[in-house]
Design a protein that fits this description.
CATH topology of the largest domain: Rossmann fold
Distance between the termini: 52 Å
Number of domains: 3
Radius of gyration: 27 Å
Strand content: 15-25%
Largest sheet: 7 strands, mixed
Helix content: 40-55%
Number of strands: 18
CATH superfamily of the largest domain: Thiamin diphosphate (ThDP)-binding fold, Pyr/PP domains
Bound molecules: thiamine diphosphate
């Protein structure tokens, strides 16, 4: 039996010897590697926080003291130390452990958000609540240097700096990287703090002397702090956090557990907000991860644990964007690209390699990305902002007021739209087409295949007087779905028999719609399938087509409320077209993690379920075709 097997909660850590703790760290690393190998996950960040997490749980008393993980992707070790190590064989699989903290799993988990840069605000609120309620509890927020580039983190720091009663310890886990190296002035400042050995040596000396004095507490700490401030001015003049008025301990070697514990204990004794600056290495202890240049296994797919070789993802939707944006960049000198700390995942790396001066990594700062893009557009360029669909939520007001109100020609490219699956509720890109519907003037395109990604991207960057958006899903694109006809910009994908059902397929749901059509045609139902390509604004050709059919069906991989189907229905009503309508979309719920295909099955976004729904609806419509359609419904039950 290993040391980890005997850990049922953080308190068990306290009785371990130094040797046992070292063994534990290596067992944790082995389990991280073996459990990520088959399913992938955030291996690199977790390898980097093994000692840090052990130190936190030895110093604080979770769940009474609260530990808030920013983003939450680095909480695997925390899960192992809070009694869940045995469940790691079911990490990130349906019904198994989530890849993020999960309140359902454990009272040690609190924030399961996964959108970055929120931990300090949660922690600020928690610590204030405990102070007001007179509860003697500490709050520990762990935030990476990447997440620290997000605006919310700075809004929180501004408030925390004056929250003197807050028993709040902010651990800055500084590995110098988001996916790729973190960029910006903040990083430069952190680097200066990190690389001032003289400062550290002297500080260590001071600390040791102080600790030799019995009863180290706030007073001694203050003395230390005052001395440190003087030193800092001499050797680290940028004093990032202290200039904000925040107490600062560090930098400390985040892989030296004892040193981290020492720093955390100092911070804990202070009983006010303190920053502990820990230096770590992403992927630490696993050669393949440490050597991996693109992201040090930040988010790895399935891989061979011995060689570290990753399974090929094959062709994904993103690849079409990657190629086409380079082509556009060659032909248009005014096109510039922005990523929010995700150069490779959103496919901008080749554009960056070709046009480094026209590529901006703004850090985890989607709001800034959007408004900076507005500025770039006002300055005569055409920015392409490539982000994951779920993270656009962050920048809604910036898209609305800063881009759209000012009629700025900015193109947003939303990757991982629709159901993404494995990463759970907060990563599904199921909100974008609803929130964007309310933006006046904005044009939204949903490509159905890789060819349409290229086509629509070119059309989007030609729009100079309004924001444009392109959204496409995770994973491999379907084989191209050819059009049999085009009506005023609307592609007709299937036209078969009588005009019974008009299926309006949004983006990636087009190939599903074509399969639906096959099933309906087999039942003797006439179907037209169209792909509007541009789904906002609604193309008047769709209104005309809807008038000519007996049932309109819309299919989209976006939330059902306020999405394309809902707006189409509203548009039809306004035009006096009262053709019966059936909407297929994602139910407006937070979806638990599972494979994308499984979730689509569960929510009924499969060809079989949609076809069945249509047959039932057509049957219920009755009239002169009742005989035929009821027969169809019976057949459908049997064969669909
Ligand atoms: C708002 C938002 N944008 C983008 C992401 C995607 N993302 C997840 S982790 C990460 C990098 C985080 O870097 P850091 O905070 O330094 O943590 P590390 O993995 O280095 O420990 C990014 C960009 C996100 N989770 N949230």
């Amino acid at each position: 039996m290993g040391v980890l097997d005997a850990i049922s909660g953080p308190r068990d850590l306290r009785r371990l010897s130094d040797d046992e703790l070292e063994t534990l760290a290596s067992e944790i690393r082995d389990l991280l590697i073996s459990s990520c190998a088959p399913v992938g996950g955030h291996l690199g960040p977790n390898l980097g926080v093994v000692e840090l997490t052990m130190a936190i749980h030895r110093t604080f008393d979770s769940p009474r003291d609260r530990v808030v993980w920013d983003t939450g992707h680095q909480a695997y070790v925390h899960k192992m130390l809070t009694g869940r190590a045995a469940q790691f064989d079911r990490l990130r699989v349906e019904g198994g452990l989530s890849g993020y903290p999960s309140r359902e799993e454990s009272p040690h988990d609190l924030v399961e958000n996964s959108h970055a840069s929120t931990a300090l605000s949660y922690a600020d609120g928690l610590a204030k609540a405990y102070a007001i309620r007179g509860e003697d509890r500490h709050v520990v927020a762990v935030i990476g240097d990447g997440a620290l580039t997000g605006g919310m983190a700075w809004e929180a720091l501004n408030n925390i700096a004056v929250a003197n009663r807050s028993k709040l310890v902010i651990v800055v886990n500084d590995n110098g990287r988001s996916y790729t190296p973190t960029i910006g002035g903040l990083t430069t400042a952190l680097t200066s703090l990190r690389t001032s050995p003289r400062y550290e040596q002297v500080l260590d000396l001071v600390k040791r002397r102080l600790n030799a004095v019995p009863g180290v507490g706030p007073a001694a700490y203050d003395a230390l702090h005052a001395m440190k401030k003087g030193l800092k001015d001499a050797v680290a003049p940028q004093g990032l956090f202290e200039d904000l008025g925040l107490k600062y301990v560090g930098p400390v070697d985040g892989h030296d557990r004892a040193a981290v514990e020492h720093a955390l204990s100092q911070a804990k004794k202070f009983n006010g907000p303190v920053i502990v600056h820990a230096l770590t290495r992403k992927g630490f202890g696993y050669d393949a991860a440490e050597r991996h240049e693109a992201d040090q296994f930040h988010q790895v797919g399935p891989f061979d644990p011995d060689s570290g070789e990753q399974e090929s993802k094959g062709t994904i939707w993103t690849n079409a964007f990657t190629d086409e944006i380079v082509r556009i960049g060659q032909r248009r000198q005014d096109v510039v690209a922005i990523t929010a700390a995700m150069m490779h995942p959103v496919g901008l790396h080749q554009f960056q390699a070709r046009f480094p001066e026209r590529t901006f990594d703004v850090g985890i700062a989607e709001q800034h990305a959007a408004t900076s893009a507005a500025g770039l557009a006002m300055g005569g360029l055409h920015p392409v902002v490539a982000i994951y669909a779920t993270f656009l939520n962050r920048a809604f007001d910036q898209v609305l007021m800063d881009c759209a109100l000012h009629k700025c020609g900015v193109t947003f490219v939303l990757d991982r739209a629709g159901v993404t699956g494995d990463d759970g509720a907060s990563h599904n890109g199921m909100w974008d087409m609803s929130i964007l519907q309310v933006v006046p003037g904005l044009r939204l395109a949903a490509p159905r295949d890789a060819t349409r990604v290229r086509e629509l991207l070119n059309e989007a960057v030609d729009v100079e007087d309004a924001p444009t958006v392109l959204r496409f899903p995770k994973g491999p694109p379907p084989a191209d779905v050819p059009a049999v006809d085009t009506i005023s910009g609307v592609d007709v994908l299937v036209r078969n028999g009588t005009k019974d059902v008009l299926v309006v397929a949004v983006g990636a749901m087009a190939s599903t719609a074509v399969e639906v059509a096959d099933r309906l045609v087999a039942q003797g139902i006439g179907v037209t399938v169209v792909d509007p390509r541009w789904v906002k604004p609604v193309n008047p050709a769709i209104v005309d087509l809807a008038r000519q059919h007996r049932l309109v069906v819309s299919i989209e991989d976006n939330g059902e409320t306020g999405g394309c189907g809902a707006v189409l229905l509203q548009t039809l009503n306004a035009a006096g077209v009262h053709t019966p309508f059936q909407l297929h979309a994602i139910p407006q719920q937070f979806l638990a993690h599972a494979k994308r295909g499984r979730i689509l099955e569960q929510i009924g976004l499969t060809p079989q379920a949609i076809a069945l729904g249509i047959v039932e609806h057509i049957t219920a419509l009755g009239d002169d075709r009742v005989g035929r359609t009821s027969r169809a419904a019976v057949d459908a039950d049997r064969t669909l």
